[in-house]
Design goal:
Distance between the termini: 39 Å
Order of helices and strands: HHHEEHHH
Shape: elongated
Largest sheet: 2 strands, antiparallel
Radius of gyration: 19 Å
Oligomer: single chain
CATH superfamily: Winged helix-like DNA-binding domain superfamily/Winged helix DNA-binding domain
CATH architecture: Orthogonal Bundle
CATH topology: Arc Repressor Mutant, subunit A
Helix content: 40-55%
Strand order of the largest sheet: 1-2
Number of helices: 6
Length: 143
């Protein structure tokens, strides 16, 4: 039995796409429709993510007929960790089971602590890794 990939959270990867497109276009205002066309998704999805990125101070938003969004900081000042924190702050990287332990099973009684240690290690390593990659590095790889 496989996993349902539709359930995989794509906010982070779509947000990296948004931010990389904006960095690549060097200060040009881009609309949610333009970004949605690049990502091949609905502009409503993009607008939800843009709101979070604006709220986090990573983007500036300009309203009106000739409005759009642009980076609020230099691509060198924006890390992948910043983007992740802006759009995925309500979720851990890995979910652990939330079922109560079976009191009759010593393994079950210890799984919560064991998994917490593993998940915290993965989380810390991932955040450290993402903090060392800035948006300008991704943009520089575009050919």
């Amino acid at each position: 039995m496989g996993y349902n990939l539709d359930m995989v959270d794509q906010r982070f990867s779509v947000s990296i796409h948004i931010m990389t497109a904006l960095a690549f276009h060097k200060g040009e205002l881009m609309t949610s429709e333009q970004l949605a066309g690049s990502i091949r998704t609905n502009p409503t999805v993009i607008r939800r993510l843009l709101a979070k990125l604006v709220e986090a101070g990573l983007l500036e938003s300009f309203k009106g007929k000739s409005g759009g969004v642009k980076l609020a900081k230099s691509p060198k000042e924006i890390s992948l960790k910043d983007i992740y924190a802006a759009v995925c702050c309500d979720k851990k990287l890995i979910a652990t089971p939330d079922k109560e332990a079976s009191k009759q099973c010593v393994v079950s009684c210890n799984m919560g602590k064991l998994l917490d240690d593993v998940v915290n290690g993965i989380e810390n390593n991932s955040m450290n890794y993402m903090s060392n990659i800035c948006l300008s590095e991704l943009t520089a790889r575009i050919k």
